[in-house]
Amino acid sequence: MTYEATLSNIPNLLSLNSIDYNNDGLEDLYTSYANHVSIFENDANQNFTNEISVYQDDSLIMGALQLINVDNQNGLDYVWSGGNNTIAFHMNESLLNIDDLEAPTILLYPNPTNGILNSTHQFQKLRIYNFQGAKLMEVYKTKTLDLSRLPAGIYTLIMEDLEGLTIHKIIKN
């Protein structure tokens, strides 16, 4: 791995995630800092200079964030811990949502699982997140996922391929 750049325009982060927010094929940064939740767009040169404010509240200290489908409307919604014992979310109502693309029918089994999770579809990238929004695993080009090292709990699985993103809730016994 080589050092590429310093993203000096981004404030002291409390949490960081990534998503192709503007559907250009590049991962953008989904961030929380101080009293803000923002997206910094990737301009193809990895200059994340365009900040899009998702939410700002001076009475909350933002915490961990996660991308999940809160309203079951085929779009990733923005969820974050608002500090002060609150969880907040912003519904993604974008008409150009990448989740609106026709996705293949995917079967994940067994779910709940004791360790090994199988898929009927091979994905380019699989990411596992805990409920606090921390990325726990990232694997590439596989149909089998070994979750045996993770404690029992509920996890978010984001699967990415050329057709877009697919998100599933996984239960580990």
Automatic annotation (TrEMBL):
InterPro entries found in the cross-reference section: Integrin_alpha_N, Secre_tail
TM region(s), chain numbering: none
Keywords associated with the record: Signal
Claim: NADP is one of the keywords in the record: no
Domain of life of the organism encoding this protein: Bacteria
Record-annotated Secretion system C-terminal sorting domain positions: 108-171
UniProt entry tagged with the keyword Signal: yes
NCBIfam families per UniProt: Por_Secre_tail
Name of the protein described by the UniProt record: T9SS type A sorting domain-containing protein
Organism field: Mesonia profundi
